[in-house]
Amino acid sequence: MTFSDFSNNPDVSFAIETAQLVGKVLLERPDTLEISTKSTKTDVVTHMDKLAEQMIVQRIEELRPLDGILAEEGASKESLSGLQWVIDPIDGTVNYLYDLPFWCISIALIQLETSEPLVGVVLAPALGEMYVASIGFGSWRVTTHSAIRINTSDTVELSQSLMGTGFGYAVQQRKQQAAVLNYVLPSVRDIRRMGSCAIDLCEVASGRLDGFYEKGVNHWDYAAGALIVREAGGIVSGIQGKPEGTDMLLACAPGIHQQMNGLLETATRELRQ
Ligand code: IPD
Ligand code: CA
Ligand code: CA
């Protein structure tokens, strides 16, 4: 199968074209960004996040009027088709603010009856990379030169694994995340905190990270990336047998998922005491 066979699927091509349209606008980053804060003083949103969301929502309303919407900056619409678009207009807003390249547009299409993601697109314009997955058709990394099938790493040793993580914006949550990090850091090769959950998941999918975990994420942060990891052969879950969610998102190469799950369960249990 080639990437063009797969990208002919109308859901896939709609998601790709939408992300690319918005990506062009976001790449023209204004020198001055209007910013406001959300849940805490460090949780910022720029006028470009809002503009990106408006553009995506407008395109869905015009071309997919029956589909539902759940988007980070507040757009929400009930679905009449059984399908819902889950959108993070800029994942990695703090990087965008500082003009660091690790930010992306994350768009997923969910089948509401099964809660199953059908399509995931993560476009990182400043990195020149786009990640695309469609259920049953694998995960792909697309650049201007190539479209290649990607797979998670074949690591089986947690101590030799490069692990990504992320931190929330609330002080109490950060203290807990720092406490969990005390367990993880001595047990792995090293830690990376890139600042975009969606890109981190794509790095797991392509074997550039062996795994990623974060507590406190929202559906729009991981909906597309989780499908991209699964379609690349990785395992995505919560801990204690639960599915991924705000409690915990754990995405790993299959050879270390169980070890990482055990480590996070130990940390959670001991920190509770
Ligand atoms: C954030 C990023 C970050 C993660 C935070 C998210 P935002 O999303 O994904 O890497 O650690 O938990 O909230 O605010 O840039 O869309
Ligand atoms: Ca986000
Ligand atoms: Ca965001």
Account of the protein in words:
The chain folds into two domains: 4-149, Fructose-1,6-Bisphosphatase, subunit A, domain 1 (Fructose-1,6-Bisphosphatase, Chain A, domain 1), CATH 3.30.540; 158-272, D-Maltodextrin-Binding Protein, domain 2 (3-Layer(aba) Sandwich). Helix content is 37%, strand content 25%. The chain has helices at residues 3-7, 10-27, 47-63, 93-97, 171-184, 197-205, 219-231, 254-272, and strands at 35-37, 44-46, 68-71, 76-77, 83-91, 104-111, 116-124, 129-134, 139-142, 147-149, 162-165, 190-192, 211-214, 235-237, 249-252. The strands form three sheets. Strands 4-3-5-6-7-8-9-10 form an eight-stranded mixed beta sheet, sandwiched between helices. A five-stranded mixed beta sheet has the order 12-11-13-15-14, with helices on both faces. A two-stranded antiparallel ribbon has the order 1-2.
Count of strand segments: 15
Question: What is the CATH level 1 assignment of the largest domain?
Answer: Alpha Beta
Fraction of residues in H or I helices: 25-40%
Q: What is the CA–CA distance across the termini?
A: 52 Å
Q: Which molecules are bound besides the chains?
A: D-MYO-inositol-1-phosphate, calcium ion
Strand order of the largest sheet: 4-3-5-6-7-8-9-10
Total domain units: 2
Global mean pLDDT: 96
Percentage of β-strand residues = 25-35%
CATH topology type of the largest domain: Fructose-1,6-Bisphosphatase, Chain A, domain 1
